[in-house]
Design a protein that fits this description.
Helix content is 12%, strand content 40%. The protein is mainly β. It has one domain: Ribbon (Cystine Knot Cytokines, subunit B), CATH 2.10.90. The chain has a three-stranded mixed β-sheet with strand order 1-2-5, with no helix packed on it. Strands 3-4 form a two-stranded antiparallel sheet. A hairpin with a 6-residue loop joins strand 1 and strand 2. The mean pLDDT is 76. This is Thyrotropin subunit beta.
C-alpha cells in the first residue's frame, strides 16, 4: 500500500471525530391534544448538528468499525413535564419531553430518538398557542 494513502486514511479517520459539530440546540416543540383548547409551545434543547460519517465505497480497504453512519444523539438528558392548558377534567393534561444536557455522535437509539429526517414540517399549532418557558 502507498504510504501517503495510509497516512491520509489515518488522518481522515482521526479528523472525523474532531470535526463533528454535535451539541445541544434550542428548539420549540408544539404540543396539542384534540380535547384541549390550546396548543403549547415548549422551549427545550435537543441534540442537533453534524457528525462525520464514512463512505462505504471503500469497505474492502477499511475496518468494519471505520464504516460508521453516526447521528447527533443524546449523551445525557432528563425529562420535564408540562401542563397543557384548557383541557377538560377527563383528559390527562400532561406532556413529558426530553431536555438535552450533552450530545454525542453515535448510533441512533429509537427508544428515545426520532432517527428519520422528515421532509415536511409538522411541528406547528392548529389551535391558539400558549408559550411554556421552563
Amino acid at each position: 500500500m502507498n504510504p501517503f494513502f495510509v497516512i491520509s486514511l489515518l488522518f481522515g479517520l482521526a479528523l472525523g471525530q474532531t470535526a463533528s459539530l454535535c451539541a445541544p440546540s434550542e428548539y420549540i416543540i408544539h404540543v396539542e391534544k384534540r380535547e384541549c383548547a390550546y396548543c403549547l409551545a415548549i422551549n427545550t434543547t435537543i441534540c442537533a448538528g453534524f457528525c462525520m460519517t464514512r463512505d462505504s465505497n471503500g469497505k474492502k480497504l477499511l475496518l468494519r468499525s471505520a464504516l460508521s453512519q453516526n447521528v447527533c444523539t443524546y449523551k445525557e438528558m432528563f425529562y420535564r413535564t408540562a401542563l397543557i392548558p384548557g383541557c377538560p377534567h377527563h383528559t390527562i393534561p400532561y406532556y413529558s419531553y426530553p431536555v438535552a444536557v450533552s450530545c454525542k455522535c453515535g448510533k441512533c437509539n429509537t427508544d428515545y430518538s426520532d432517527c428519520v429526517h422528515e421532509k415536511v414540517r409538522t411541528n406547528y399549532c392548529t389551535k391558539p398557542q400558549k408559550l411554556c418557558n421552563m
